[in-house]
Amino acid sequence: GAVVSQHPSWVICKSGTSVKIECRSLDFQATTMFWYRQFPKQSLMLMATSNEGSKATYEQGVEKDKFLINHASLTLSTLTVTSAHPEDSSFYICSARDHQGGSAGANVLTFGAGSRLTVL
Amino acid sequence: KQEVTQIPAALSVPEGENLVLNCSFTDSAIYNLQWFRQDPGKGLTSLLLIQSSQREQTSGRLNASLDKSSGRSTLYIAASQPGDSATYLCAVITQAGTALIFGKGTTLSVSS
């Protein structure tokens, strides 16, 4: 089945530094990837939709200059948390849609294992 | 705007009980609905996917039903086990090509 790899699985950084999280589709091509954030004991909130070769679409309230998304290839999307602060500490999860999933598969998403960011 | 609600927020049961988790969504025009399991501090494990044209899906002790017209889905867990303890998330896709919209989840605790 489709596999999405997310790296790193956890990261601790100092306040003010930038952190990059990678999301890779290992055995399929993904024109669209989604980035979610999950605070403790909360549900997953969609942050942005990443489209290969174009600018990401951000949800209301998400700062695009703080959460930089790059989707340069059909198998890789990156989320960079710039000038991270303690309030950015969260669990970030990506999901990807199979480019060739057909009408049914087009709406089946595969999730990465998540990346836990702790900003000191 | 699609909203997904899950009831109850938390549930504690003794081992062996059958239980039902509820999910409701405000916009019945969905493409599919998915149930996930999330263990503390971990990612998501997909349990069951129900396409909009389907009524239910079964996998082992799990059975998920979908009633689009009423905007509801249930996840039935038979003969619960301590290993079933986790948070169960319900999510829907409303429009083709868009992201899953999640509920807040039901945290299940099964005691031995």
Task: Note the topology.
The complex is a heterodimer of chains A (120) and B (112).
Chain A: E1 4-7, E2 10-13, E3 19-25, E4 32-38, E5 45-51, E6 57-58, E7 67-73, E8 76-81, E9 90-97, H1 102-105, E10 109-111, E11 115-119
Parallel strand pairs in A: 2-11
Antiparallel strand pairs in A: 1-3, 3-8, 4-5, 4-9, 5-6, 7-8, 9-10, 9-11
Chain B: E1 4-7, E2 10-14, E3 19-25, E4 32-38, E5 44-51, E6 56-59, E7 62-67, E8 72-77, E9 86-93, E10 101-102, E11 106-111
Q: How would you describe this protein?
A:
The complex is a heterodimer of chains A (120) and B (112). Chain A has 120 residues and is mainly beta. Helices cover 3% and strands 50% of the residues of chain A. Chain A has one helix and eleven strands, in the order E-E-E-E-E-E-E-E-E-H-E-E. In chain A, strands 2, 4, 5, 6, 9, 10 and 11 form a seven-stranded mixed sheet that branches. The longest helix of chain A is centred in the C-terminal third of the chain and has 4 residues. Chain A starts with a strand and ends with a strand. The model of chain A has no long low-confidence stretch (mean pLDDT 90). Chain B is mainly β. Chain B is built from no helices and eleven strands. In chain B, strands 2, 4, 5, 9, 10 and 11 form a six-stranded mixed sheet that branches. The model of chain B has no long low-confidence stretch (mean pLDDT 94). At the A-B interface, strand 4, strand 5 and strand 9 of A face strand 5, strand 9 and strand 10 of B.
